[in-house]
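Quick one:
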Amino acid sequence: MLSKARGADFEVVNLGTVGPVADHPTVVQAVIASATADCSEQQAMSDEQLAQALNTGRERVLAAREKGAQLFVGEMGIGNTSAASMIAAALTDSTLEDLVGPGTGLDNAGVLAKQSILEGVMALHAEHLDTPLGVLQSVGGFEIAALCGAYLTCAQEGIAALVDGFICTAAALLACRIHPEVKEWLVFAHNSAEPGHRAMLQALQVQPLLNLGMRLGEGSGAVLAVDLLRSACLLHGNMATFADAGLPTNLPEAQKYAD
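Output:
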């Protein structure tokens, strides 16, 4: 609904669900598997699955570019605050105690249980957490890998990417760790209430456009920020400069008008 109101193309990329997803004009069938592997037992993705997910993100950006897209937005997944928290812990100086939040509504006991489980998972994969791709393969999800591939491709193709909340920022942080130049093509939409999101924003040294107390967002925060970007571009492209308006450009003379 929010995308339609802004005249944006919208598509759902099916990277894998337990049950089949019916064909639909807005659904891109790019199934890798019904789910990632249980990362409490083994790496979440095989080499082939990781490459497939990254490449799917790349393909969707290239398809958007062919349609003339100037801005890319993407986000959606279920059960991925755990993955995002572990990615944040592996790539920042924060601990899981600082990062793990309630997600879709856990109470304090649930958050502590979640933290304990994730600490065990990270201990299992400790030898693979020294590189961004190792982190992604070990504890990431298909959707986070696809987003990471999309952000990398946006930078390569010169397309700005509007990063939503917690999950998207985990993918963005991975992309920036792989190629730091990616950061120059990212705009961060909103500040999620999830504690892990704030830690990643600080690690990236970025300030999001909005702070509305949103928790997960699921793309809605980014779409809301589109209007701000449009307004900024409109002002940048059309507002007269001092010189255009016939006003003095040296500071002492300009101050007379301000006074």
